[in-house]
Amino acid sequence: MNELPQQLVNGLLLGSMYGLVAIGYTMVYGIVQLINFAHGEIFMTGAFGALTVYLYVLPNGTTMWLALPLMLVGAIVVSTTVAVGAERFAYRPLRSAPRLAPLITAIGLSLALQQAVWAWYPNAKSAIVFPSIPGGPFEIGSVTIQTGDVFLFVAAPISMAILAYFVMKTRTGRGMQATAQDPDTAKLMGINTDQIIVVAFALGAAFAAVGGLAYGFRYGEINFRMGFILGLKAFTAAVLGGIGNIYGAMIGGLVLGLAETMATAYIANVPGMSQLGGQSWANVWAFVLLILVLLFRPQGLLGERVADRA
Fold this sequence. Notes:
- The protein is mainly α.
- Helix content is 70%, strand content 3%.
- Strands 1-4 form a two-stranded antiparallel sheet. Strands 2-3 form a two-stranded antiparallel ribbon.
- Helix 1 runs antiparallel to helix 10, helix 2 (39-57) packs across helix 8 (193-219) and helix 9 packs parallel to helix 11 (282-296).
- The model is unreliable at 306-310 (pLDDT under 50).
């Protein structure tokens, strides 16, 4: 039981990363009811954008404390550029098409982004070492926190606070709520729904970029495939919290991270299940949770916040 606090912290860290990426799924689905399966690759391009700033833009020997904010800016710029470009050239022409068309397009875009990074980024055919934050680890009682995890601990709550303020207090945020509720009426009220949709894609990409930077610091390496499975898990978190509910996305991510961490750490100790534990089963238990949610509470923990406009 002495390991329990450490496993709880690990689960919260993992869940925070899932939640940051899940927000992008939730925002886009809440407004245009599109499941953007390329969002995992937008998360991946954010991590590569941060690495590009560190390797090719900043002078050699730049301290990480100076490099970190610039890497974050680079990650956000790359992710939002890719997301806005995808919305303009891949999804907007299909907005009035049957739902299957943009869904297939999203899967194709996901594969295209993977292959683009694989083909054009130097040394991307294998895992690339990501720069680390100096110092640490930090000991708090029986819990050890790596220096790279401090960024995630700080970034996740700040990001959620900024998002809550933006959605609830700004004119654009209220326009997003109106567009999610009824886009036709929002247009009649003078809201530029095309602009609102672009903002939703850009905001979701910015949060994914923060998650991508946190991933690099946490695991010490990135690769062109990193967005696929993590994107699926973030989608699981969005469904778990309530697709279309931005607060539910983060809560769903935390629940998923805790469930995955606890399952991999302790399920091997259950009599008769010794072969089902360990990190190799982490993906299995994450998607088992998704199946259970879809079976018993398809609206998610906090409920779906978008009207059915099918």
